[in-house]
Amino acid sequence: MEAGIDIAQPEHRLWQQVQFQKEYQKFTLTNTIRFEQRWRQKIIAPDRLDNEFNFNYRLRFGINLQYPLRHKKLEKGDLSLVAGDEVMLNFGKQIVYNYLDQNRIWAGMRYYFSRSNNLTVAYMNIYNQTAVPELYRIFNTVRVSYFHNIDLR
Questions:
Q1: What architecture is domain 11-148?
Q2: What is the pTM assigned to this prediction?
Q3: Buried b (16+ CB within 10 A) or exposed e, 42-59
């Protein structure tokens, strides 16, 4: 929530994403580029929403590293060290001050239940620029993610 705002701001998004993954001898590197179209409900008072929405675009650039602790080809029961950084940039006519939306840096562990199911627990630092000029927020949080990859071949 923005400074002085006591209400959550609903948001609707469409997005398109491209992901590149390269396996090296000791680790895997994944790069992600996501293009988002965002509709965010207007806030008209610290505790009141408007019925209208603002529209803007956001680009997200991510890099992730994964270092397996046992096997190169991950198997059931394996652990990996993981780390990443994702930068989010706003643009569009509604954007005046907050071109840099967020920077998320994280590091943690990933456990493999199987080749297609894994759980990641990580520390994440979020640097967030608000719509108010020169007002920034920093969050320290725990990120828990479960991934299930469906093989449609």
A1: Beta Barrel (2.40)
A2: 0.82
A3: ebeeeeeeeeeebebebe
